[in-house]
User: Which sequence fits this backbone?
């Protein structure tokens, strides 16, 4: 599966995803909606792994991605998965708990992420 990872603190997750047979491209920042759209057009991902705690906010980026293609799977991958108001905002945007994955260790997290986006 072609995956776009949007995360300013990438770890070994791209390598683990590629070892699992996926193609992964990484963006460490997003300028604005137009710029993100150009990257989505270039990469053509089937799924996006999105760090919530970025600028622009993850909730806004989520909406831009879904506007680009509503069928694209988006999973929040963040250190703030269980933080009250932040968790509630992610849940409001994505609608399901399973689309919020807490960052722990990339080797462990990759199985959870792949299960959600498959």
Assistant:
């Amino acid at each position: 599966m072609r995956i776009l990872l949007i995360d300013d603190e990438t770890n070994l997750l791209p390598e683990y995803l590629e070892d699992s047979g996926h193609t992964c491209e990484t963006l460490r920042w997003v300028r604005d909606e137009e710029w993100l759209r150009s990257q989505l057009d270039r990469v053509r991902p089937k799924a996006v792994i999105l760090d919530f705690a970025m600028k622009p906010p993850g909730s806004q980026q989520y909406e831009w991605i879904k506007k680009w293609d509503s069928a694209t799977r988006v999973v929040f991958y963040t250190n703030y998965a269980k933080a009250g108001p932040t968790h509630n905002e992610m849940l409001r945007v994505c609608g399901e708990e399973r689309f919020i994955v807490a960052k722990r260790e990339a080797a462990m997290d990759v199985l959870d992420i792949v299960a959600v986006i498959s």
Summary: The longest strand covers residues 73-78.
